[in-house]
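Thread amino acids onto this structure.
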């Protein structure tokens, strides 16, 4: 029996109890959220993980995506990235390797983390076809579903599946044109395959079969965003909206069948379109958990895209997005290093917290930090910091003569001066 079926039958499971405790909500709130399709808890019958609830009324969660490329294949480095993502406080991990022994890498990464792990099974199906038969367009439909089931059995908790790319979506994409092209690897593989083979996307035409696999292995389905904009000038365009409409309809079907489901959202969005995107996504998907990829709010800051995405993520979380995919500083430039994975997660966690300050009015930690700063209580400030190690290191490297203050104002520490004369 799936979590959705348990929730519908009124049963509160151990996973629901854990999420309720973590989030400070009632167990029945979580149960109702799952029954209504507004909350998911990605689980797997094959692996125990750190339980993490995603959805309405819960803290915004952060995903870190890692994985090899065709140019850089270093399994130890990917395991280290998984470790750094967890150390930085990521809530989930996606393993998206496209180079090397894909099964071996996935096994090693899964074994190295306690987080829920996500995947994009079509990468492996298309890459194996390219290696065996010379091109991704030779991918066999049966292989796609076989690989999906195999990845589920390795303990994958959620899968991004590109169900919303069909002929209607491609017609809209072709007719409207694009300034930034198509940047989703899954979207590109599937588009090429459909056009070459003159066939419908099997993830769309065989959606019932896909649901059987998801249900059998209790995988949470993340409706993939293959048409996401790769440039702010393409945001909220017809192809993106067309894909969203299809995904939203299929998400309802998945939920009705007892499969937990998330709907993914776009990648590059100017700030003034973020609110509309969140409202639209939530409205048409019947308030399914919304997985926002970024979003990047400008295209001209390569090298700093973790910050660019954090601006967008803070706003989208504030407006109601539930789950944020991090972006690293090397986005658009290179495969990230473990250090950049760490940085990306921290940037995204800051954004998620800023969003939760609006969405959930979660401001207790900020109040405590205000008091700790006023009282010049440095230990408490470090404890409350998003990255205590970094905060402590910066202070210790530049210690002031007066240990109560810091080297910013030294003898003229405003707080110290006023605290002598004033009790707040
Ligand atoms: S020295 Fe200046 S910056 Fe540092 S704690 Fe005092 S008031 Fe704040």
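Threaded sequence (424 positions):
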């Amino acid at each position: 029996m799936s979590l959705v079926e348990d929730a519908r039958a009124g049963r509160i499971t151990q996973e629901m109890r854990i999420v309720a405790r973590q989030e400070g909500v009632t167990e029945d709130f979580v149960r109702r959220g799952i029954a209504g399709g507004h909350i998911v808890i990605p689980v797997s019958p094959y692996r125990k993980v750190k339980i993490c609830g995603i959805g309405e009324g819960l803290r915004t969660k952060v995903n870190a995506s890692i994985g090899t490329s065709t140019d850089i294949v270093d399994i130890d480095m990917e395991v280290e990235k998984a470790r750094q993502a967890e150390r930085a406080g990521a809530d989930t991990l996606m393993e998206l390797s496209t180079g090397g022994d894909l099964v071996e890498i996935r096994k090693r990464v899964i074994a190295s983390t306690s987080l829920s792990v996500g995947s994009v099974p079509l990468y492996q199906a298309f890459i194996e076809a390219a290696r065996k038969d010379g091109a991704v367009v030779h991918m066999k439909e049966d292989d796609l579903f076989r690989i999906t089931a195999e990845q589920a059995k390795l303990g994958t908790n959620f899968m991004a599946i590109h169900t919303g790319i069909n002929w209607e979506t491609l017609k809209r994409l072709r007719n409207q044109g694009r300034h930034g092209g198509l940047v989703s690897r899954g979207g590109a593989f599937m588009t090429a395959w459909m056009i070459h083979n003159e066939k419908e996307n099997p993830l769309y035409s065989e959606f019932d079969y896909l649901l059987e696999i998801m249900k059998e292995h209790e995988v949470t389905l993340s409706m993939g965003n293959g048409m996401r904009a790769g440039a702010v000038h393409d945001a909220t365009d017809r192809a993106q909206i067309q894909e969203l409409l299809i995904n939203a309809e299929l998400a309802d079907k998945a939920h009705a069948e007892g499969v937990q489901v998330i709907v993914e959202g776009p990648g590059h969005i100017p700030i003034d379109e973020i609110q509309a995107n969140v409202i639209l996504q939530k409205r048409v998907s019947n308030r399914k958990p919304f997985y926002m990829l970024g979003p990047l709010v400008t295209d001209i800051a390569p090298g700093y895209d973790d910050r660019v995405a954090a601006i967008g993520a803070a706003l989208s979380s504030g407006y109601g997005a539930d789950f944020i995919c991090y972006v690293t500083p090397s986005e658009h430039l290179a495969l990230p290093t473990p250090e950049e994975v760490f940085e990306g997660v921290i940037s995204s966690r800051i954004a998620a917290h800023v969003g939760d300050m609006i969405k959930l009015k979660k401001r207790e930690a900020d109040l405590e930090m205000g008091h700790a700063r006023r009282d010049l209580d440095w230990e408490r400030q470090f404890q409350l910091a998003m990255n205590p190690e970094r905060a402590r290191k910066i202070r210790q490297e530049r210690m002031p003569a007066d240990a109560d203050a810091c080297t910013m104002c030294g003898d003229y520490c405003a707080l110290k001066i006023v605290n002598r004369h004033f009790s707040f």
